[in-house]
Specification:
This protein is mainly β and about 240 residues long. It has helices at about 115-120, 230-240; strands at about 30, 30-35, 40-45, 50-55, 60-65, 80-85, 95-105, 120-130, 150-160, 165-180, 180-190, 190-195, 200-205, 210-215, 220-225. The chain folds into 2 domains: about 40-140 and about 230-240, Thrombin, subunit H; about 150-230, Thrombin, subunit H (Beta Barrel), CATH 2.40.10. Helices cover about 5% and strands about 40% of the residues. The strands form 3 sheets. The protein has a 6-stranded antiparallel β-barrel. Its EC number is 3.4.21.-.
């Protein structure tokens, strides 16, 4: 088994969870290049792409919680994070600063690096930006229903040196606790598979956000995503926050 949360420390390349933690040379493997964002955004820590996310309101993005922690479980400074919105090209799009994050308490968390240190949180996070985005047409609705087993969903992410890709994956299982990740959706490879660097990115059913990419497994090749539906009401309430 291989986890998106447990990536070896390397000297260079993209950051993941920490400035020096580096994913392999590509993120989504196979799939197809796409310009159809459906709210997908790029999250940078300094100059390095860390994770993906989904724009769900003019100032709010949903992503994976572990993207904002180092491999040792240390919370990273928000001042170093930037979110790029509105462009499928790697490193392009309007840049926005992060001013606050919101976490869901009361559930267990994954057992990768930082998992035990994070405490009773799910691997889902809402980011508040310092200012509204201009591309309101890129906002994706937060789904309040789960897909069905055997449904096809779309996952989106950016490669190490490439523009956004989308892969179709099949829902294998729902409402599971897998590898201590609660409310997990097990996705099996379709025309592509997520890899390191895709964490936090959207799982879309039609035009709705139904999952947040959390981990991947090598055998069988699959992706674990946190289901959005159990957190729908909490996300909607968080969108009314005004911490900054």
């Amino acid at each position: 088994m291989r986890f998106m949360k447990s990536i070896p420390m390397l000297a260079a390349a993209l950051a993941f969870g920490g400035v020096m933690a580096a994913p392999p040379a590509q993120a989504i493997v196979d799939g197809v290049e796409s310009r159809h964002l459906q709210g997908a955004v790029q999250i940078f820590n300094g100059q390095n792409l860390t994770c993906g996310g989904t724009l769900v309101a003019r100032r709010f993005v949903v992503t994976a919680r572990h993207c904002f922690f180092s491999s040792a479980g240390r919370r990273l400074s928000l001042r170093n994070f930037r979110v790029r919105v509105g462009d499928h090209r790697l490193g392009q799009g309007d840049q926005h600063n992060v001013c606050e994050t919101y976490e869901k308490v009361g559930v267990s968390t994954g057992d990768g690096p930082g998992g035990q240190a994070q405490g009773a949180f799910s691997d889902i996070l809402v980011i508040q930006l310092r200012e509204d985005v201009n591309q309101a047409n890129q906002i994706a609705p937060v789904g309040n229903q789960l897909p069905a087993v055997n449904d096809n969903v779309a996952v989106k992410g950016w490669g190490h040196r490439g523009d956004m890709k989308v892969a179709t994956m099949r829902v294998q299982a729902l409402n599971r606790e897998i590898d201590n990740v609660p409310d997990a959706m097990d996705l099996r490879r379709g025309n592509g598979i997520t890899q390191n660097g895709d964490s936090g990115g959207p799982v879309m059913l039609g035009n709705q956000l139904v999952g947040v990419i959390s981990e991947f497994e090598d055998n069988p090749q699959s992706t674990l995503a946190v289901e959005v539906q159990p957190y729908h009401d909490w996300i909607e309430q968080t969108l009314h926050s005004n911490a900054c």
